[in-house]
Amino acid sequence: MAAVRVDIERYVRWLQDVRRFQPSTVSRRLSVVVGFYRVCVIDALLPNSPAAYVRRPPVPAESPTLGLGHLQFEALITAARLSGNSNDFALVALLGLLGLRIFEACGASIEDLGEEHGHRVLRVRGKGGKVVLVPLPPAVGRAIDRACDDRTGGPILRNSLGRRMDRHAASRRLGHLAATAGIRMPRMHPHMPRHTFVTTMLDAGVSLRDVQIAARHADPRTTMRYDRARKILDRHPNYILAAYMASGT
């Protein structure tokens, strides 16, 4: 409660220089701090907010995380389906074919499976505790059945010890699958399959509004950030120059 503006600014600088978080992550964490002190002012616990005039880092209009290409994602799915670990296919299917966030996929349980109006569905607990029903395409259903085996309860995704898989174990499995599939990526992040889920839908001609609903983005601008990143690479002038100079190269 005794913090002043310079303390908040030092916190922002620590997030940037020491933790090396992306600008969007720094901005989100600063939003929590700003909201906390705003409530303190409303409740008359503080006369002024020390975070009121702290500058937020500029967040780029396009997403800094790049998804996989269509052929890369197909190779990843194939490697997961042929893997001896039954959790691999379910992991890639939940992230890349359902577009779940990593904490949603790891938090999914067998008890969350059900049927609704003739559709097989998965009850997903998303951001803010919101619960939504996500329909399961046949391929995803098969992947989940393979991971569940004959179990009637417990987590869908399990680690090597038979416990609920966490994001760190999921990252290791995705990295292993990417290497097996021959995908050259500096780092296989768990958000990449979800990013691929969005960009592949856009490439398939699905409207931006429908993609926003499928990805469960509260703001359509979030979906547009994925679209901008895709178009920036697909239409990069480097390809035009290379095609123009093809005769000499």
3D architecture notes:
This protein has helices spanning 5-17, 23-42, 70-82, 86-97, 102-107, 138-148, 167-180, 191-203, 208-215, 220-234, 237-244; strands at 113-116, 119-125, 131-135. The chain has a three-stranded antiparallel β-sheet. Helix 4 (86-97) runs antiparallel to helix 6 (138-148). The chain is built from eleven helices and three strands. Helix content is 53%, strand content 6%. It is globular, with a radius of gyration of 21 Å. By secondary structure, the protein is mainly α. The protein folds into two domains: 1-59; 72-187, Intergrase catalytic core (hpI Integrase, Chain A), CATH 1.10.443.
Task: For the structure shown, list the relevant keywords.
mainly alpha, 249 residues, hpI Integrase, Chain A, 53% helix, 2 domains, 3 strands
Uncertain spans: none
Physical arrangement of strands within the biggest beta sheet:
1-2-3
Could you name the CATH homologous superfamily of the largest domain?
Intergrase catalytic core
Can you tell me the CATH topology of the largest domain?
hpI Integrase, Chain A
Number of strands: 3
DSSP helical segment count: 11
Q: What is the CATH C-level name of the largest domain? A: Mainly Alpha
